[in-house]
Design goal:
This protein is of the alpha/beta class and 157 residues long. It has one domain: Glutaredoxin, CATH 3.40.30.10. Helix content is 27%, strand content 24%. It has five helices and nine strands. Strands 5-4-3-8-9 form a five-stranded mixed beta sheet. The chain has a two-stranded antiparallel ribbon with strand order 1-2. Strands 6-7 form a two-stranded antiparallel sheet. A hairpin with a 5-residue loop joins strand 8 (121-125) and strand 9 (131-136). The protein is globular.
């Protein structure tokens, strides 16, 4: 299943930082911003998720949920979420199925042979469940175009 603009967003059920299942069906009928990130506690990931945290009220005003997904375990994600006061779900794709479904697998990350992680990427999902926009990083140090993400959510009106 390709995660292309205009296609139905792949569904998922992943563990949140409390070990509870979080399903993509929970934002059915709403807009969503899904931010895939490579690694909790890396500087760029911290900046990315804290930028989304600081704009969360703007997304709420647009009736959009924000969530982060990494392959890190829920314990690392929980410590990362707590340390940065992140007030939206961070989900653990430790089986790497969701990053495969969204085609954001980054093999041999940071020169570590055999270490696969999520490619930094952002998907805007419309209330209809379709992918309205996506951004994929070319290098791990790239940050998403935050203003453009917001504009794409606004454009869903």
């Amino acid at each position: 299943m390709a995660a292309e603009v205009g296609s139905t967003a792949p569904g998922f059920t992943l563990l949140d930082t409390d070990g509870k299942e979080f399903s993509s069906s929970s934002f059915a009928g709403k807009r969503a911003v899904i931010a895939f990130f490579p690694a909790a506690f890396s500087g760029v990931c911290q900046k990315e998720l804290c930028t989304f945290r600081d704009a969360l009220a703007d997304y709420a005003d647009l009736d959009a949920d924000v969530l982060g997904i990494s392959i890190d375990g829920r314990f690392a994600n929980g410590a990362f979420r707590s340390a940065n006061n992140i007030n939206f779900p961070i989900l653990s794709d430790y089986k790497q199925s969701t990053i495969a479904d969204y085609d954001v697998v980054w093999p041999d990350f940071s020169g570590m042979s055999g270490y696969t992680t999520a490619r930094r990427s952002v998907f805007v999902i419309g209330a209809d469940g379709n992918i309205a926009w996506k951004w994929l990083s070319n290098v791990p140090s790239d940050l998403p175009p935050f203003d453009e993400v917001k504009k794409q959510v606004e454009a869903l009106d």
